[in-house]
Amino acid sequence: MPDIIHLLPDSVANQIAAGEVIQRPASAVKEMMENALDAGASTIRLIIKDAGKALIQVSDDGQGMSASDAHICFERHATSKISKAEDLFSIRTMGFRGEALASMAAIAQVELKTRREEDEIGILIQTEGSSITREEPCQCPKGTTISIKNLFYNIPARRNFLKSNAVEMRHIIDEFLRIALSHPDRFFSLHHEGQEVYHLPKASPKQRIVHVFGHQYSERLVPVEEDTNIIRLQGFAGKPDYAKKTRGEQFFFVNNRYIRDGYLHHAVMNAYEELLVPGSFPFYVLFISIDPAAIDVNVHPTKTEIKFEDEKPVYAIIRSAVKRSLGRYNIAPSLDFEA
Ligand code: ADP
Ligand code: MG
């Protein structure tokens, strides 16, 4: 019997890995926007065509890449963000796996244009099937523009699995808004089919919420703040009268990263106690700052789940802080000394 094990070619290995990171157009949006944040951009523009199936383009005015960095960035495990295992416990950046661009190049046609401030001329790179097909100097503004064209063009099964444009666009907008909500100090815009869908000027955290959700929210928000030696908590909770029957306006960010956490959601719900009509969900946007060594973000490829070293005190702090805020701000009018 001959031996039967062989190593997969890179293009196949990359495609397999890409399946975990890039499930739909919205995943590519998240990865590219996070890269723009990590590059220190203050302006991030997202352009979408055909709900991301034809084009996802992210332009930023961040630090850009050198020609040789741009050449290597599509390799798997190519990253500027960590270099040794210990670094995993002090992560301050959104990315660190060095998987996103390699994944993108495996399942789409990618075009990168990038220039650093100190370089007179930028570089243009195009890829197809995980290989660079064009590489040449180009005139471009400082920063980076990445265009993801024809996502899943080479994986028909994946492409056929995509939902309607309305559904895919909803996912894209959700990712876009999570990032915009957690970075109010940056400018964001989103265009779909040539129409500007969002235009979000730099703002305070509260103004950003109002820009995203509508003017009526400015009267509905109660500030939440707590500083402890375990976490720092900041954000806003919605007045219970405006709680909705559907979910979708509950946001936790840990070190500016959007996460889902049923246990911490419960802490907030618990703080409202009987103030809520049963079956309704209050609005909240809560930012938790914590020592990166006390969490593990490397538990899931999309990083929307994280592990706390000890979640119980975090639960208790959130519950009591939200409760105190609700008590303090005109929830019970007779107790409202601040109006
Ligand atoms: P990761 O973000 O995990 O490091 P990526 O595959 O997303 O991995 O990106 C690889 C590398 O390419 C990054 O570490 C960064 O150095 C560079 N890069 C990607 N996007 C940008 C960008 N918008 N601006 C500057 N550099 C970028
Ligand atoms: Mg990245």
UniProtKB/TrEMBL annotation:
GO terms for molecular function: ATP binding; ATP hydrolysis activity; ATP-dependent DNA damage sensor activity; mismatched DNA binding. Keywords: DNA damage, DNA repair. The keyword Cell inner membrane does not apply. GO terms for biological process: mismatch repair. Transmembrane segments: none annotated. GO terms for cellular component: mismatch repair complex. It comes from the Bacteria. Residues 209-327 form the DNA mismatch repair protein S5 domain. This protein is involved in the repair of mismatches in DNA. It is required for dam-dependent methyl-directed DNA mismatch repair. May act as a 'molecular matchmaker', a protein that promotes the formation of a stable complex between two or more DNA-binding proteins in an ATP-dependent manner without itself being part of a final effector complex. Belongs to the DNA mismatch repair MutL/HexB family. This is DNA mismatch repair protein MutL. The gene is mutL. The chain holds residues 1 to 339 of 602 of the full protein.
